[in-house]
Input
Amino acid sequence: MVLSVGELGERGVLKRVLARLEAADAAVIGPGDDCAVVRVDGDLVVTTDTMIEGPDFRAAWHSGFELGWKLAATNLSDVAAMGAQPTALTLALAVPRDTPVALLEEIARGMNVATRELAPGCGVVGGDLGTAPVITAAVTALGQLAGQAPVTRTGALPGDTVAYAGDLGLAGMGLSLLFAEAADPDGTADGRPLPRLREAHPVILAAQLAPTPPIGLGVGAARAGATAMMDVSDSLSIDADRLARASGVSLELDAALLTAGFGAQRGVAVPVSAMLTGGEDHGLLAMFPADVALPAGFLPIGRVAAAAEAPLTLDGAALTPSGWDPYVVRWPGA
Amino acid sequence: MVLSVGELGERGVLKRVLARLEAADAAVIGPGDDCAVVRVDGDLVVTTDTMIEGPDFRAAWHSGFELGWKLAATNLSDVAAMGAQPTALTLALAVPRDTPVALLEEIARGMNVATRELAPGCGVVGGDLGTAPVITAAVTALGQLAGQAPVTRTGALPGDTVAYAGDLGLAGMGLSLLFAEAADPDGTADGRPLPRLREAHPVILAAQLAPTPPIGLGVGAARAGATAMMDVSDSLSIDADRLARASGVSLELDAALLTAGFGAQRGVAVPVSAMLTGGEDHGLLAMFPADVALPAGFLPIGRVAAAAEAPLTLDGAALTPSGWDPYVVRWPGA
Output
């Protein structure tokens, strides 16, 4: 007998979800009032992101734990990309009335564990529960700059080293694998091919379903003098192109450096094409002055040059950005 | 020829939405980077809320402008209810690919105008665009306490005056009218009965579709010494019951005071039953020490007594909370 949120009601569901969450260090007042109250040191950074069943994920692929993990990880990475320390998350969760309460508990648990592992001290301070035709999760992440200047997309200077930290292309390879299975006549609506896929490609699947971006490296990159930084969510080519345009420079990527640094990740061979077009790794793309030793975790992948006709090149040839546009890309079968 | 978001693509839609938004005073860095950067004076308050087409609103009822207005108003009121000053909003908006771009522009314009009118200086600092099977909007509101202590739900003391500011019951009457029309065989999916309804009941409809909570009174209530405060979103009876339980007191509401203060609102006769069970007005329910003159805008509706078997009474009789539970209430036809 599976208990649904409609049977338990809002108050009961809230109680079970809150039981899965640990308090944030910065929380003066946590969940349960009109607002949470959060202590902030220096200017605040804030980002928000929504994951919706269908366009953003498929319930048959993710466990609730993985979904909660990914929700936390993808938002924390935006905070890290400003050179800030994550302090607090909010979670607005809306689900169909027949959704098992256990799924919401697992989402909360996944968020909690991901936050504890990727950004110790941060935590969920508040949220909202409601109903929706499909699982809908909106997360807002807050962070503090502690007196440092934020690292934006606009500060890259010609001569800077282009560097990257984190997985690169693995999450996109995972999505491709899942898409291929989704087109399989066996069908994936019930998740049947997943156990086999997970066994055959554990690293790639995990990178897509529960990514582990290098949140802890954001503050260090800022302290080391990063001139510009962003997290790579849509794809390296799309996001590098954005950063180049925002900074008024061009980015010259080097295929040999990409291969040397990221051609083999955790035992998986990753082609340069996957690095350039795969999204959702949420690693950090950062520019550093050429005379700065790259902080641990960052590897060089190119250099910054003056603005040119092509804002982005690979081995000297113009590179057309390609990856994810939520309003244009269509999922197989969608 | 109506341009859809799928035809225009994310970058183009984002540009049009941003064009409708004015900068927040506190924004050090506004939309366009991984995070916004916001200056905060004192501890931060944060709240989040989602409005989803179907469970939370019907697209045929609200104009885009009204929807954006309501999104801002309902979140700003949670900030006000802590005694804080709203400083910044984020908006995560996900819509079907065939949604007209103009609707998103109108939502942004409504948020902008509501914020300017209800909380001058506050503004949208960032957000996220995506796709969803139905219109899905998640707003997070930030506010600052500027050295004051937050006013929570837990501080009410026996002897305090129970006071209320804002509309009370009007928004619920509006929802009832709309529900009644939704059950009309004429049908409402295309919004046909709306022009007639709006003409016959302009105040009631506006209270439901684009409420005007007294955001500016929150900081003043805190300064005047409010011991406990919350915004009334689900209904006066539900939220007063919550506050009583959180404070460990009982709240004794007085029907004569309710009628004297709120029996006629902007030319509309409002029965006490509507005041007690109607939600979504987002007015401020606040407790003040008996020797404090109520700040302008607040009217007395009862008094706080020691904890009793019934946390909430009306004219001495136990009052059962009734109003809105998102997981239990079903809309007509849903």
Chain A touches chain B through 70 residues (CB under 8 Å).
